[in-house]
Amino acid sequence: MTGVVGRSVESITGALRTVFTAEQVASADGLLQRRDPRVAVCSVAGLALAVMITRTIAVTLCFGAVTVILARLSAVPLRRLLARSLAVPLVSAVIVLPQVVVLPGDTLVRAFGLSVTVDGVAYVVLFTLRVGVGVALLSLIVMTTPFSAVVAAMRELHVPVALVWVIAVTYRYLFLFFDELQRLVLARNSRTTGRSSLRGGWRDAKRLVGTFLLRTLDRGERVGRAMQARGGARPPSPYSRSRTVDRGDYALVALAVIAVVGSGVVRWGL
Amino acid sequence: MGPVIEARGLTHAYPDGTTAIQDVTVSIDEGERVAVIGANGSGKSTLQLALGGLVEPTAGTVRYFDETTDAEAVRDRLGVLLQDPDDYLFNTTVREDLEYGPAQLGMSREAATQRVAHVAAELGLDALLDRPPFRLSGGEKQRAAVASVLAFEPDVLLLDEPFGAVDAHYRDRILKLVTDHEGTVVLFTPSLDVVADVADRVIVVGPDGSIAADGSVRDVLTDSTLLQANGLRPPATVTLFEGILDADDVPLTVSDARAYLLDELG
Ligand SMILES: Nc1ncnc2c1ncn2[C@@H]1O[C@H](COP(=O)(O)OP(=O)(O)OP(=O)(O)O)[C@@H](O)[C@H]1O
Ligand SMILES: [Mg+2]
């Protein structure tokens, strides 16, 4: 499968695949890497919560800035962070897009007999921003802390086992999904030559999607067995990387608490 | 010493109707070295999964350590290594993969750290520990997968083609780790050249997924007719000496053949 469709599928899957790998960054030396995993998980989750409470664009942008600063201090390349956290807000933007005409308010522009309202646009922008910053924060933790340490920290923090389980499995399967997609595209590209028309490319792409879904299900089953073979049927229990909490840890927790409280005060008042 | 794995009338059909193994009855005793051989598609991997309690048999039962039919209850004692390392390595780094089994199966952290360091050193993985498994070469993945199953020190090893893509050096290393293993070893493989190095007993899976033969390594490997009927070829040394020496004297490994020749040539 060559041509436009093939090439874009290849580059998208390549990008997404790297998105789901934390390597290097997790072992680099930085602000978040040096935190106790429990502290990192708690405070980043706190910041994400603060973002979710927010209902003003300005406050959301502030949290965006905090995220960028944390990333810089943790040696996380901004491009990687962005690539990782762009897909989800874009999809959610599409989902809430109809709100620009549904929400009542002052008309911004009229098109096709529909009026786009100021309130509607503001809502969609705010929503997308909040989701984006929230996802970026969560990506930040996955990029700076080995995944098994995140899981261990959640267990130590008494997060319900069922929830930890779902998070651990989902993360691994997401990864598998992109790995499988890239393998399939690579295999197809290696066996097709020359240029194909755009239409031919689309036909190919449709067939590819079918094969892909079957293969992912199959691979998921096999990986499931591999997990089970090494005790995956038991509750997730990786070795913890916790240590005694230091001043930097307290500072980060304090930042998260201030963020949640501040965000609440801005929204609901004192 | 009682059986560590005892299968009765084991049959497995995949959802699409393919019957991969049929009416398999075997008993593997503690400390035994068994090779399960068979042509491609004969059902070795399916048999491995069924013996390891990782697929639900359509019929039949498997009993472990003469005490239970629930594989999960003895998961820490069964080392099932799947054929494809890409399926077996599912963590974000090689180190996390090596630690996964020990952590999930309740090995203490200190013991695990020591054990992981040991197998990583044996299999040349030290420099790869912080790499994601999917970025490794084929042979490196295979070594990481073998290390991952050895890491939690299971009593019984059920290894599906552990020599896959590894080079000669690491093939010997894996061979040594397997032969040095103190418990039971069951090796599933389509290539017979390593069989005599590892096993005393050989089970042949026929093309229909049933057991075609089960005997001593010498009886099976020197029976060209049996092997050919099941889509297999005897090891090179057997082909070389067949008809020249009695079946009882045919060397089964290259080192035995060399010793014999040196002896003959004075
Ligand atoms: N998931 C599956 N669904 C349907 N059929 C399958 C599946 N996996 C394997 N089979 C079929 O079951 C039979 C036995 O497969 P199995 O993988 O056990 O063979 P094998 O002896 O391990 O072969 P190889 O030497 O190639 O590894 C084959 O005919 C195969 O096509
Ligand atoms: Mg197989």
UniProtKB/TrEMBL annotation, chain A:
<feature type="transmembrane region" description="Helical">
    <location>
        <begin position="44"/>
        <end position="69"/>
    </location>
</feature>
<feature type="transmembrane region" description="Helical">
    <location>
        <begin position="250"/>
        <end position="269"/>
    </location>
</feature>
<keyword id="KW-0812">Transmembrane</keyword>
<feature type="transmembrane region" description="Helical">
    <location>
        <begin position="81"/>
        <end position="101"/>
    </location>
</feature>
<dbReference type="GO" id="GO:0005886">
    <property type="term" value="C:plasma membrane"/>
</dbReference>
<feature type="transmembrane region" description="Helical">
    <location>
        <begin position="159"/>
        <end position="178"/>
    </location>
</feature>
<protein>
    <submittedName>
        <fullName>Cobalt ECF transporter T component CbiQ</fullName>
    </submittedName>
</protein>
<feature type="transmembrane region" description="Helical">
    <location>
        <begin position="133"/>
        <end position="153"/>
    </location>
</feature>
<keyword id="KW-0472">Membrane</keyword>
<dbReference type="InterPro" id="IPR012809">
    <property type="entry name" value="ECF_CbiQ"/>
</dbReference>
<keyword id="KW-1133">Transmembrane helix</keyword>
<feature type="transmembrane region" description="Helical">
    <location>
        <begin position="107"/>
        <end position="126"/>
    </location>
</feature>
<keyword id="KW-1003">Cell membrane</keyword>
<dbReference type="InterPro" id="IPR003339">
    <property type="entry name" value="ABC/ECF_trnsptr_transmembrane"/>
</dbReference>
<dbReference type="Pfam" id="PF02361">
    <property type="entry name" value="CbiQ"/>
</dbReference>
<dbReference type="InterPro" id="IPR051611">
    <property type="entry name" value="ECF_transporter_component"/>
</dbReference>
Automatic annotation (TrEMBL), chain B:
<keyword id="KW-0547">Nucleotide-binding</keyword>
<protein>
    <submittedName>
        <fullName>Energy-coupling factor ABC transporter ATP-binding protein</fullName>
    </submittedName>
</protein>
<keyword id="KW-0067">ATP-binding</keyword>
<comment type="similarity">
    <text>Belongs to the ABC transporter superfamily.</text>
</comment>
<dbReference type="InterPro" id="IPR003439">
    <property type="entry name" value="ABC_transporter-like_ATP-bd"/>
</dbReference>
<dbReference type="InterPro" id="IPR017871">
    <property type="entry name" value="ABC_transporter-like_CS"/>
</dbReference>
<comment type="function">
    <text>Probably part of an ABC transporter complex. Responsible for energy coupling to the transport system.</text>
</comment>
<dbReference type="InterPro" id="IPR015856">
    <property type="entry name" value="ABC_transpr_CbiO/EcfA_su"/>
</dbReference>
<dbReference type="InterPro" id="IPR050095">
    <property type="entry name" value="ECF_ABC_transporter_ATP-bd"/>
</dbReference>
<dbReference type="InterPro" id="IPR003593">
    <property type="entry name" value="AAA+_ATPase"/>
</dbReference>
<dbReference type="Pfam" id="PF00005">
    <property type="entry name" value="ABC_tran"/>
</dbReference>
<feature type="domain" description="ABC transporter">
    <location>
        <begin position="5"/>
        <end position="233"/>
    </location>
</feature>
<dbReference type="InterPro" id="IPR027417">
    <property type="entry name" value="P-loop_NTPase"/>
</dbReference>
<keyword id="KW-0472">Membrane</keyword>
<dbReference type="GO" id="GO:0005886">
    <property type="term" value="C:plasma membrane"/>
</dbReference>
<keyword id="KW-0813">Transport</keyword>
<dbReference type="GO" id="GO:0005524">
    <property type="term" value="F:ATP binding"/>
</dbReference>
